């Protein structure tokens, strides 16, 4: 790697032009991306290093673009990438912009708060050309308001005091009045202005957060703040810890997975089974060999969509996972000839009726929790749920059925009903168990994962990536 100038602000001064220093930064940055869950291979890291040889390293955004082009694979990975890039290659370092006025006639360290809010209003009303000034103003405001004492000789940095002091959201009405200047409210002009101002408010908040993280990294170390600054990519979020907002984003991931799962199970259904003898083709081919059928031909099997039965643990201990699996069940209904879904806590009820085509998934889940009969005493009991399922719905499982069980296999020390599960598994064409807990927690406490896994193949399924890997392994 050549010894070009390091991007301004990345090391504490432009005098540092060491290629070795930049190489250390590169290695640390790539390692941080991997730690955050972004898939960066060794070859891609080398591609990024080669890209740095053909760009102007003094142009920070060119550096960002080169890294993004070589290391980022999915749009969902970009926010985490940008957060880590700003930590490893910051736009400034403490001392270079801390006392810099945001405007020629305004010193952000001594100006009164109304003057600062007036300046912020000017920047929020501006166009994209003012982005640099907005970022510089954000850094100055962090220096002014973001510092909080944390003991003798120590200080912490926070975004909240900055946003509370300046309250950019409260400037919206004033800015709209100035931009519209007497024009009619509620029209296209107001909509465009509101969107631009909202976008600039979000940019200001992001710039404040970025500078706070940068200052913490300078004092505590980049590696330490990097581990907590970036959430894992969507496909690696733990099902047991996802939020309602994450579930909304996961809906886009579910339908492709449902199609792939249906395709894999269909392949397994057909694998090893040839169609019936095609008598006409066999006789016709034998004419070339004197009527001796040296080659036989079979009729292709008709495409077949397998039937699916889903047994889902809906108890509070796996509530987030249950929400995801119900999303998956809803998507699977479009891919299989017949899908029947059953939810259980300590007894079981069929919940297929809540997921009719066209139903709103969130509304279906709300109805399910209120109307479905899945709870007797409120403590998870897999054994009783399996026995009750076999008693009431045993005819749902047959030679064309794939049985999919989703749950953590924690049964509150109740009898596991292994014989009942064995009978259900024998009657099904395929059976699989997806467990949202890490493997190293199986069999701890009231878990009977290994016992159930000896009857139905059990797979760790903590996130979308593991679910996708499970589907691929079905081939």
TrEMBL record:
It comes from the Bacteria. This is VWA domain-containing protein. The lineage of its organism: Bacteria, Bacillati, Actinomycetota, Actinomycetes, Streptosporangiales.
